[in-house]
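User: For my dataset I need records formatted as: sequence, then structure tokens, nothing else. Please produce one.
Assistant:
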Amino acid sequence: MLKPKRKISKHEIKKDPFLEFINNGQQWVQDKKKIIYQVVVGVIAVVAVIYFLNNNRINSGTAGEALLGKALLSQDMGDVENAKFQLQTLIDDYSGTKAGTEGKYYFGKMSYDNGEIESASEYLNEYVKKGDNEILMTTAYKLLSEISLKNNNGEDAEKQLQKGTKFAENTVYHQEMSLLLANQLFENGKTSKAKKIVDNILKQENILFSIKKTAEELQGRLEG
């Protein structure tokens, strides 16, 4: 006949380190039940907010991209006013999205093409602060350099071209931007720096005929 299990007294539990640890743990959970519940609820709430914000960001990004596409289509069709309205809406309503940021570039370029220099400068400068598209960044800095020249500021034009050339390093526009920088350096009296850039371009293989011709013409001016 099996003997009934002997109950373990609290005194015996205290003698056993493992059982004492389990007992203390249970007691701690019991004492901190309210705090634990609040922490769990808090964690769930944070996760829910992150999910909501991420989902909202994705939806906003998609809507912004669609609006940017409509604006560019309107521009291609010659409907400039409607394109500008759509771009302004994009910039105002989706400023935190990639499309909203790129909208500033297109609005700035459109303003430049229309001769609205102050507006172009404002939006292009806003774009280069957060933009990451190498092609758009290159063109933005090129336009900003042209704006600086219109304002008779050759030194700032040089700075803008230096930044643009850096962004163009891995694009097909690198040689073109380098030549523009070399020309501006020459105009600013920095002949040796300009010559170094031109010589480097002419040493490169598979150079386009138009680039080579421009580089040789600038080389002639530098040596003449």
